[in-house]
Amino acid sequence: MINYPTIIKYLALRFSWYLFLISFVIIIVLFISNAFDVLQKFKSVYLTPNDFWLLILLKIPFLFNELSTIIGFVSTILFLRYLSSSNELITIIGSGIPIWRIFAIPIIASFLFGISLIAIINPLGTFGFTQYDKIESRLNNTPQSSFLISSSGIFFYEHYENTNRVIQAKSINAIKKSISDITILIVDNQNQLIKRIDAQAAVLDDGRFVLHHPLISTPADTSSSATLSLPTNLSINNLIQSFRPPEMISIWHLPESIDKISNSGLPILNYQLHFFKQLFKPLSMAAMVLLACWFLSLNNRDNSAVKNVILALIIGLFTYFLLEITLHILAYGGLAPIFATLLPILFIILISNFVILHFQEA
């Protein structure tokens, strides 16, 4: 009598071993590549041993999360190759277990692995990437982002000549380069107030703020004018670029951050795409596993097994990059980010399901 639970448990453990093995290999590769990257990037900077190891280790969770979609694919290729070459696959199918049950094991395991990535590795990766950025800024003596979005509005900082400026605004229109409800506090190096400027609207262009109907307050008096031109080193583009990239924001905090950014008038497409890519990661990993099932061969006498594995890996990498390119094309072409992310994944699932059904018939 066939003991189905025992066979399924064995197959699950076998696939988990390959999933662990590929994950371990990728972590080792990331460790080595990070070490070379740190040595190259900071070759002209004195690094303490503590900073050196932190710079190597802090980025690994983030990079591992970015590459995780391909892990299930490679694990499935090796898993099915092992079952086929050892004749275990023929024996299991001959015992009456349908092929779809064997395929279901890596699909379900990869889907659950993707959920664990969202729950654990994503927050860990964003934290590590943020800490890496702080250490890099300290070593290179470059200022960190001084751009902050809160419920009170947008805040950013500028050091101009011998003064410091703290600027608050309600919203920014990147296309029109306009800023609404702006307040500029200008202080000296001892943080003594020099001037406060309030305006309902301003334009930031050509290296200057052009404020409309500003109210200018100094410790001595208050005045107003029709327009005021204030030179600055800031621009709309570097303000947007100085805000934290989506890769530094955990998936659990991204919806709140997207709402704040949207209310501030800043572009949110990249943040939405990153959010949905992380949210649908389990589904994309399952889709890549289905793709890997295309390359199952029951012909053990075929001498081209190694070539088939190499071909499968090439096609898997090509599909991985194609997914990234396609979702950006669809999103920038006007499709809603959720559909731009989901449609390529569903397409792979549907095509893979069609191929597997024909495989079963054969």
Any overview of this molecule?
By secondary structure, the protein is α+β, with helices and mostly antiparallel strands. The protein is 59% helix and 17% strand. It is built from 12 helices and 10 strands. Strands 1, 2, 3, 4, 5, 6, 7, 8, 9 and 10 form a 10-stranded antiparallel beta sheet that branches. A hairpin with a 4-residue loop joins β4 and β5. α2 runs antiparallel to α6 and α4 runs antiparallel to α6. It is elongated.
Helix/strand/pairing class, anyone?
A: alpha+beta
How large, in whole angstroms, is the Cα Rg? 27 Å
Mean pLDDT: 86
Oligomer: single chain
Our estimate of the beta-strand percent is: 15-25%
Number of helical segments with 4 or more residues: 12
| Helicity, as a percent range | 55-70%
Silhouette: elongated
Biggest β-sheet description: 10 strands, antiparallel
According to DSSP, the number of beta strands is: 10
* Low-pLDDT regions: none
Secondary-structure element order, N to C: HHHHHHEEEEEEEEEEHHHHHH
Q: How many angstroms does the end-to-end distance come to?
A: 27 Å
What are the salient characteristics of this protein?
alpha+beta; 362 residues; ten-stranded antiparallel β-sheet; 59% helix
